[in-house]
């Protein structure tokens, strides 16, 4: 088992660097990635819709005028044929947006190894580093950094870009299959620390708010509190209070996207600095942020489970980052 290792990655290194001590992040200011082909299959509900209109509704981050320019530049194809934007889309067609390489936003280039053996790797993810590609990040991700050192490692779960703490990787198919099968069961305990707005009146809460997709003005839809959503369960316990905030310890009993942010917000305790969720657990009414935007403190502190191969009890802990009470 290797404990406490930390890699600081450069952009152009051809071999892994030696372990380095210290707490300083190394940032990649100019990560030009390889581009990406965003692929969707036209569903029956959009059959006959003009392609330009379909693109503007499918990817609302760009205006119709911006999409027409991408079409003029030959970035969009339908069934492999370069599209103009005026043609109607047909059910079953493969729509591909070949986004050219772009300079990715800055992101931390380090992680701390908490546990490693032939089957598992557990790391402490810093804030600002996406777990998986998406949201403008393809190379500046924890997955890419980890796989530079351990090519066969794949994450069993993900944390939001601003969320810190434990991310568990499986290094073998056997370990991955076992962990996936048990991830959202009591066999795996996942405990987080969260800094929330407002002073909690009770010492503990069982939160059962359903979570589903709701409208978002910038990206079409986002996961949030929804009566028609999927059943979800979190247990929140008060750790401490200030005059205007509460620090909760939250245990997850389901694995919905943004579950802790949504659940705490739904009981009147949005995370301090959360740009997306308001006190109802739904997007803020006035210019809600995006799911990947930071500004809040949420930390995956403990992960407890039996080793998928040996059966050994594994108790992982990631030290709390700045802001969770010890420094307040």
Question: How does this structure look, described?
Answer:
The protein has 328 residues and is of the alpha+beta class. 33% of the residues are buried. The model is unreliable at 1-29 (pLDDT under 50). Among the domains are: 36-100, RNA-binding S4 domain (Structural Genomics Hypothetical 15.5 Kd Protein In mrcA-pckA Intergenic Region, Chain A, Roll), CATH 3.10.290.10; 191-296, Pseudouridine synthase (2-Layer Sandwich), CATH 3.30.2350. The protein contains five helices and 19 strands. The strands form four sheets. Strands 1, 8, 9, 10, 11, 12, 13, 16, 17, 18 and 19 form an eleven-stranded mixed sheet that branches. A four-stranded antiparallel sheet has the order 3-6-4-5, with no helix packed on it. The chain starts with a strand and ends in an 11-residue tail after the last strand. The protein is globular and about 60 Å long.
